[in-house]
Amino acid sequence: MNICFVIGAMKFSGAEKVLSIIAKELLENNNSVSVILLEQEYSVIGDEDGIITYGAKASGNKISRLLHRWSYIRKNVKKINPDIIISFGSVCNVNMLSALLFSKLPKVVCERNDPNYDPRSKSDKFTRWFLYHFANGYVFQTNEIRDYFQKIIKDKDIAVIPNPIIDTGIRWDYAKAEKRFATVARLDNFQKDQYVMFEAFKIFHEKHPDYILDIYGNGPDETNYKKYILDNKLDKCIFLKGKINDPLNNIKTASIFLLTSKFEGMPNALMEALSIGIPCISTDCGGGGAKFLMNSCNCSDGLVEVGNASKIAKKMHSLVENKNLMNEMSSNELQINDLLEKRIIVQQWIQFFMKILEKN
User: Fold this and answer.
1) Quick one: 2-164+341-359 is in which CATH superfamily?
2) Does position 12 have pLDDT exceeding 60, yes or no?
């Protein structure tokens, strides 16, 4: 198959990392793979580890940018001549469908977040609702996200495919665990709800003053978080460590991984933490991805209510005070590496592509 993806960029975070894993595995299965990047200049043809990238970045006012971007997408599709095209995320889905509205090329959209929250505006939600009717197939990460689009889907082809995982071989070890919590996330309270994390840790810290919290990532709320930490005299126990290239080697020596998001698609940071066996506490966030991951490895006890700092703190207490529970959770979590092994997940993608092509 000649397969074309559409995404914003290849920055190896979130959806980009997932697409990279899928694309490389598709190449190894003797498929041709190209990627159209909305943030890459049209004049540039790139190479990301053997994956050819084409640009569709446009400038000018809003209308001019959209028209040029759609034109660039069409021109790139003509060059690539794919059998099927797949876009990742609401923004890319809308742009791909707009550009190829009258094309007979089989078009698949892939949702990457909780559609109740992303996009935020009603007008963008309406545009998505309208254009999704023109897709030939849909890929969702969870049943919960699939159900949101049920009225649009009707009798069209769908697949619920979780994210793939690459087992790094890194492992958490209770004997080497330091008295610290760790999280890896964008500093964005609208989605990640990190003020609740701070409050939960503050409650926990009153009983366990020898623990610290390390937060890896950057984002729009970094300045606000720094002020909050200083104003609440938490600067000796909560540390904003910035974005790092190798988070797993940094969190593997923590006692517990924390996720306090209000909503997610399939939270990659949680999935990767589970893959190394560090005990995880996660909110049962919108989108259903965290629940799927925790339930899949028999760790549902690590799920807590969204936005409830006292319950999160209580769960933190119960874990750090129970060595056997931490080791049991760690052992169970490693099952995720077999369940979401990349070859298994990519075969699900290939089977879905074949199903779409047979009908189109």
Assistant:
1) Glycogen Phosphorylase B; (3.40.50.2000)
2) no
